[in-house]
């Protein structure tokens, strides 16, 4: 599988509005026809991958199947499918089937999610997430799969923020998928992974040159993550302090994790990650109304340069 330098990261359960010029479609839950239309649009724009999360909406493997069935070249990647939602045999059965059915256009992104979701909503033990991931990968590799074998093994990447999970992704999988990180974190992750592994970096983007307006949108985006233990620990490891997390996040924190400005500024942030060692930058295009800002995806599209 060839991995392009630019992908798209988008929440596909909603509330969301994909097309800025389509105000007849009110901001709301994304229907199956609309996410298929979105996937075809970003495929036309030349992006190599679409990444999407798994939370409390659609099963991520079901969503992946729908997107693959509605596109012809786009690579579909879970970003991420949580290991606490399916046992290893079920995960392998779904992933290898998608790989085989699509002719090799599926990437399985695996992750441990967050304590608040896993213990608080799913009722699982989250005391040792690194051990849980290692054990899960052992069972996944040993799981039988008796259907038609994919032409090539299904690529797996791990959601990884801290050093030990990044190292595990480098030794056991194709690479790492990072989220809400700085270019400096990307450089650190590359040094841990070595030169040959994938490093797919999610990057929130806001097409807004006014700093006050851009930071307001960014604070709305990061509000949820600021309440999650694993993200706060990750940001502390990047040099941010607890004071940076107060009142919606300091300007230093916001500017470090969210790319904003005009088109040139957004391209500069992408280049900073690529120069730091990212294999692919997964653009999360943020609009003021909580939707996906298609202007960003159109102006940064690979077919545009």
UniProtKB/TrEMBL annotation:
<dbReference type="InterPro" id="IPR019922">
    <property type="entry name" value="Lucif-like_OxRdatse_MSMEG_4141"/>
</dbReference>
<dbReference type="Pfam" id="PF00296">
    <property type="entry name" value="Bac_luciferase"/>
</dbReference>
<dbReference type="InterPro" id="IPR036661">
    <property type="entry name" value="Luciferase-like_sf"/>
</dbReference>
<dbReference type="InterPro" id="IPR011251">
    <property type="entry name" value="Luciferase-like_dom"/>
</dbReference>
<feature type="domain" description="Luciferase-like">
    <location>
        <begin position="18"/>
        <end position="241"/>
    </location>
</feature>
<keyword id="KW-0560">Oxidoreductase</keyword>
<dbReference type="InterPro" id="IPR050564">
    <property type="entry name" value="F420-G6PD/mer"/>
</dbReference>
<protein>
    <submittedName>
        <fullName>TIGR03620 family F420-dependent LLM class oxidoreductase</fullName>
    </submittedName>
</protein>
């Amino acid at each position: 599988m060839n991995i392009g330098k630019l992908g798209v990261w988008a929440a596909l359960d909603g509330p969301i509005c994909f097309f800025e010029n389509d105000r007849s479609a009110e901001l709301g839950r994304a229907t199956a026809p609309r996410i298929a239309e979105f996937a075809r649009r970003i495929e036309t724009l030349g992006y190599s991958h679409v990444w999407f999360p798994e939370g409390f909406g659609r099963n991520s493997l079901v969503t992946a199947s729908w997107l693959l069935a509605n596109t012809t070249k786009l690579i579909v990647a879970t970003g991420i499918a949580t290991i606490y939602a399916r046992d290893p045999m079920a995960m392998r059965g779904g992933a290898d089937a998608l790989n085989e059915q699509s002719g090799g256009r599926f990437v399985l992104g695996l992750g441990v999610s967050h304590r608040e979701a896993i213990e608080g909503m799913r009722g699982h033990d989250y005391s040792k997430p690194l051990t849980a991931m290692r054990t899960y990968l052992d069972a996944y590799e040993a799981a039988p799969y008796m259907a038609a074998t994919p032409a090539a093994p299904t690529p797996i990447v791990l959601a990884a923020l801290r050093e030990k999970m990044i190292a595990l992704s480098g030794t056991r999988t194709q690479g790492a998928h990072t989220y809400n990180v700085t270019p400096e974190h990307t450089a650190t992750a590359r040094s841990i992974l070595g030169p040959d592994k994938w490093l797919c970096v999610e990057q929130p983007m806001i097409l807004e040159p006014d700093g006050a307006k851009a930071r307001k949108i960014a604070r709305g985006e990061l509000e949820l993550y600021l309440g999650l233990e694993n993200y706060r620990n990750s940001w502390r490891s990047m040099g941010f302090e607890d004071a940076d997390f107060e009142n919606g996040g300091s300007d230093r924190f916001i500017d470090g994790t969210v790319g904003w400005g005009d088109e040139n500024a957004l391209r500069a942030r992408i280049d900073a990650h690529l120069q730091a060692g990212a294999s692919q930058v997964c653009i999360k295009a943020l609009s003021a109304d909580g939707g996906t800002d298609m202007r960003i995806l159109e102006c940064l599209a690979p077919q545009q340069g």
